[in-house]
């Protein structure tokens, strides 16, 4: 609302009290005189003022607490143990400057693991884009295809003349070896039968010679007798026959049978090899199937990945990138930095203390620009506009003042118990260190200003219809005060004490300072009559 500075009243001394009493008496006498003149119908002179030029300033007053442009409780975004505190209260910091650090060893491990996962995912994506096979796998599969192709060609085309001749010769040779083994085994059998008979005959002769010897064994001349010589000869013949039998038995048994079995196996293999040389439909079919399978394996290894495979691998890379960014963000959050340039006003952590996002580690303010928030009524806020100049004073600083401007006006009001107010912010530069955040400041918002305009006291204006008039003093022919003349005026701004006159009177024109609305004015002084 508009404000006008009124002179302060001072206590009257004894002398001034006497003067005041005299003035009161004079005023009473003047009032009686005026009343007497009014009763006689004579015009009463009234005090006048001239219309003068001057400067008019319209203001809206208010007060509020000084606040910083930015004020923030700074907390860690991740939990951990504080290892370093890099600032102290009162320090000036720049945006991004480290304030404190947490133990980040585990976070570094997480970043390393996430980076490895990303590299692995990228390698799998490249492999999918270029084919899933390794070079050595492709080489091995190509060799399998070549071998299957050669086998199929061999089976499908049949044997060459050289292969057929060689296979037939091998069969004839194997058959001859088998026949010889069988014949050799037959001859050895006849010899074994003869050796068996000889051995049995020698055994019978030995028994007979032994019996003859036993009958004369008691004769002292037994060694010279024929029975002794016959026994020795029979024994020698028996041992010789037995040795011959055992030798023939070993040769004609184990060795002969082994030779026969070996020859039979070689003969069967030769027959099978010769039979294989003749192409069969089932062999051709099997060889073709083996060739087709080898080719399919090679095609699978060398074929590019499908769109779905590529999408899966790309998604894995994206996920790994996100995981790395999250791990890196957690590592970065282990160092708490200043979000803006300012002054540290509180430090709530020390090395070794636990920190988390639940509590503020520091309090930081930016007082490069200060401001005061105040509440204005509907009438006052209607006159306030953005950018309007403001005078600020702080009584506790004794004469300090500065200039600011309106930087914000709330678009909606706050209704508290039926009283509607609007928030207004006044910003001003931080040019005085004595000004502390939280101090109470008085504000005078200049809502309008007119320089070198016609001014009259606001009390000189009378309403008339929808306009305003002033009274101009008049005199009669004898020069005595007469009834005043009214002049319609167009008014402009007003600060409540003075009002701008746009038209209707001219500079220097005297007007009645305290006009009358035309009714008789009686100054009753309360003295009983």
Task: Look at the structure and give the CATH class of the largest domain.
Answer: Mainly Beta
Tally of strands = 19
What would the CATH topology of the largest domain be? Elongation Factor Tu (Ef-tu), domain 3
Order of H and E elements: HEEEEEHHHHHHEEEEHEEEEEEEEEE
N-to-C CA distance? 42 Å
- Residue ranges: pLDDT <50 for 5 or more in a row? 1-20, 38-42, 519-529
Report Rg. Answer: 67 Å
What percentage of the residues does DSSP assign to strands (E)? 25-35%
Write structural notes for this entry.
With 529 residues, this protein is of the alpha+beta class. It folds into 3 domains: 14-69 and 362-512, Efflux pump adaptor protein, beta barrel domain (Elongation Factor Tu (Ef-tu), domain 3, Beta Barrel), CATH 2.40.30; 76-100 and 334-359, OB fold (Dihydrolipoamide Acetyltransferase, E2P) (Beta Barrel); 159-278. It is 44% helix and 28% strand. It contains 8 helices and 19 strands. The chain has helices spanning 14-39, 105-130, 135-157, 161-215, 226-276, 281-302, 307-333, 378-382; strands spanning 48-50, 52-74, 80-85, 92-93, 98-102, 335-337, 342-347, 354-355, 362-376, 389-394, 400-409, 414-416, 419-429, 440-457, 462-464, 467-475, 481-494, 498-503, 510-512. The chain has a 6-stranded antiparallel β-barrel. Helix 2 packs antiparallel against helix 7 (307-333) and helix 4 (161-215) packs antiparallel against helix 5 (226-276). Mean pLDDT is 81; it is low at 1-20, 38-42 and 519-529.
């Amino acid at each position: 609302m508009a404000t006008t500075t009124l002179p302060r009243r001072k206590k009257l001394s004894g002398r001034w009290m006497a003067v005041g009493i005299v003035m009161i008496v004079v005023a009473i006498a003047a009032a009686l005189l005026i009343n007497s003149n009014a009763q006689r119908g004579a015009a009463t002179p009234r005090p006048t003022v001239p219309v003068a030029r001057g400067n008019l300033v319209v203001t809206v007053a208010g007060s509020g607490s000084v606040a910083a442009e930015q004020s923030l409780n700074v907390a860690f975004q991740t939990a951990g143990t504080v290892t370093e505190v890099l600032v102290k209260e009162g320090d000036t910091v720049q945006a991004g400057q480290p304030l404190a650090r947490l133990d980040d060893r585990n976070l570094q491990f997480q970043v390393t693991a996430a980076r490895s996962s990303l590299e692995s995912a990228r390698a799998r994506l490249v492999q999918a884009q270029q084919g899933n096979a390794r070079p050595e796998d492709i080489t091995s599969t190509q060799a399998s295809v070549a071998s299957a192709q050669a086998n199929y060609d061999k089976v499908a085309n049949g044997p060459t003349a050289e292969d057929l001749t060689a296979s037939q010769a091998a069969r004839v040779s194997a058959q001859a070896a088998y026949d010889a083994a069988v014949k050799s085994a037959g001859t050895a059998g006849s010899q074994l039968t003869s050796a068996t008979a000889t051995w049995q005959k020698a055994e019978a002769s030995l028994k007979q010679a032994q019996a003859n010897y036993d009958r004369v064994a008691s004769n002292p001349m037994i060694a010279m007798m024929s029975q002794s010589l016959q026994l020795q000869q029979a024994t020698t013949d028996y041992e010789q026959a037995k040795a011959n039998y055992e030798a023939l038995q070993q040769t004609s048994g184990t060795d002969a049978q082994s030779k026969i079995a070996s020859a039979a196996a070689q003969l069967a293999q030769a027959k099978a090899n010769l039979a294989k040389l003749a192409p069969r439909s089932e062999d051709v079919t099997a060889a073709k199937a083996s060739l087709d399978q080898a080719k399919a394996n090679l095609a699978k290894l060398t074929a590019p990945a499908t769109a779905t495979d590529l999408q899966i691998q790309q998604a894995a890379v994206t996920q790994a990138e996100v995981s790395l960014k999250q791990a890196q963000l957690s590592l970065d959050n282990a160092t708490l930095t200043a979000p803006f340039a300012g002054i540290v006003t509180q430090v709530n952590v020390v090395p070794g203390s636990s920190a988390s996002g639940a509590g503020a580690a520091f309090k930081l303010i930016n007082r490069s620009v200060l401001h005061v928030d105040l509440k204005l009524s509907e009438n006052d806020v209607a006159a306030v506009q953005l950018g309007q100049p403001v005078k600020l004073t702080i009584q506790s600083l004794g004469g300090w003042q500065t200039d600011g401007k309106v930087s914000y006006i709330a678009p909606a009001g706050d209704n508290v118990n039926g009283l509607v107010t609007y928030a207004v912010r006044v910003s001003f530069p931080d040019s005085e260190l004595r000004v502390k955040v939280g101090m109470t400041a008085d504000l005078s918002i200049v809502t309008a200003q007119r320089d070198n305009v016609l001014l009259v006291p606001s009390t000189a204006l009378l309403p008339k219809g929808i306009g305003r008039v002033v009274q101009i003093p008049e005199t009669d022919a004898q020069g005595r005060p007469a009834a005043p003349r009214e002049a319609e005026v167009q008014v402009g701004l007003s600060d409540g004490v003075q009002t701008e006159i746009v038209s209707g009177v001219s500079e220097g024109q005297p007007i009645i300072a305290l006009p009358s609305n035309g009714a008789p004015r009686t100054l009753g002084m309360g003295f009983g009559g």
